[in-house]
Amino acid sequence: MGWAEIGVILVVAMLVFGPERLPELAKQAGGFVRTVKQMADNAKNDLGREIGQDLSGLQLRDLDPREAVRRTFLDEPLLSGGTAAKAVTSRALRPGEKPPFDAEAT
Fold first, then answer.
1. Do the beta carbons of residue 56 and residue 48 sit within 8 Å?
2. Per-residue pLDDT tens for 52-75?
3. Which of 19, 36, 42, 92 to pair with 51, CA 20 to 30 A apart?
4. The pLDDT of residue 76
5. 56 Cβ contact list (under 8 Å, min separation 6)
6. Cα distance between residue 6 and residue 36, in whole Å
7. Residue 83's Cα: distance from chain center in Å?
């Protein structure tokens, strides 16, 4: 939101509520935002206390489905030992050549 939008909101609020009630409404809105922020912080702390150290390094960004897809398909995959997997290079089959067979995949 830019300054122009904030200015429009202030002008509309002044026209709707009047200049005498506007400071009180701003004070109430500030208190509401403060209360919501405090509630969110308390919920985050309670959740962290309940989960414990198991997921202490977990970031909210890690729970984003888009981030999971990006990590899975776009980043270089990791093997179970933590080393980067070698990329499989594919090539077109020659005429009459049989495709490779993977017994573990069937």
1. yes
2. 666 666 677 777 888 878 878 776
3. 36
4. 57
5. 48
6. 21
7. 26
| Locus of tokens 């702390």 | 45
Can you tell me the distance from the alpha carbon of 9 to that of 28, in angstroms, rounded to the nearest whole number?
Answer: 16
pLDDT of the residue at 85:
47
Taking the C-alpha atoms of residue 23 and residue 33, their distance in angstroms, rounded to an integer, is 15
Q: What is the torsion angle, in degrees rounded to the nearest 10, for the CA atoms of residue 70, residue 73, residue 74 and residue 78?
A: 100
* Alpha carbon distances (Å) from 83 to 77, 86, 87: 9, 9, 12
Find the helix or strand (DSSP H, E) in which 41 lies.
helix 22-51
Confidence label for 83 from pLDDT (cuts 50, 70 and 90): very low
Spatial contact of 13 and 25, defined as CB atoms under 8 Å apart: yes
Backbone angles phi, psi at 78, to 5 degrees: -105, 140
Q: Which element (helix H / strand E) includes 23? A: helix 22-51
